[in-house]
Amino acid sequence: MPSSSKPKVLLFDIGGVCVVSPFQAILDYEKANNIPTGYINFSISFSKPNGAWQKLERGELPLDSNWFAAWKKDIQSPKSWEAYHKKKVDQSGYNALPPIPDVKVDDLYWTMMGISRQPDPHMAPALRKLKESGRWRLAALSNTSIFPPGHPFNEPRPGDIKDVFDVFISSAHVGMRKPDKIIYDFTMQKLREKWPEADIQPGDIVFFDDIGENLKMGKSVGWRTVKVWLGKTEDTVKELEKITGEQLSGDARAKL
């Protein structure tokens, strides 16, 4: 993040930044079921731009049994498994292609969604302090999915982290997803509409995300970016303190 000037907008991803990462649920599932570490995320990436996961996050497919079947097909694609295994061969010298792992996609998905409803223990309090200060424009840009009607995850919760944001852009509701440039342009438009008096330019935004390709696109459109590492949101809070000059952590020695 080259600029040291105070940003006009703090823009946050949700999963893995403001709430517990669904990636942790994937890692736990892989470990518990003897699936090679990283394969499930690899299969999601391998299926882009029009795999089941991407279509769900653009709101193009409903979250139903047909979608789960499509996602399972993507995860258990022989081409995906072979490509992943070839990568492992290149890195580790493996030479035998094992059977494609069986993934219980319903269980995995709902575990991911369940864990990502838990506020991050470091970032969530920091965000609330920023909100309470009244000194910062807070916005969110998140890849999301739309739960089926009547599902309990649709029910609002007291103290939902979404409440701290003045602008909340949900991929499944706007029909676009990160890292496609169109949703970054859309976000700029919405931020300027919300705060026309601020004359917001791309360099006035600091964008926090846990996925490299999302940050790469953010940087390409001129945003300042901060990578949030899995399990290291306490470090992100320290970075946020440096950026804002606010006391956000429980450490009284944090720089103001």
Automatic annotation (TrEMBL):
It comes from Knufia fluminis. This is Epoxide hydrolase. The lineage of its organism: Eukaryota, Fungi, Dikarya, Ascomycota, Pezizomycotina. Pfam families: Hydrolase (PF00702). GO terms for molecular function: phosphatase activity.
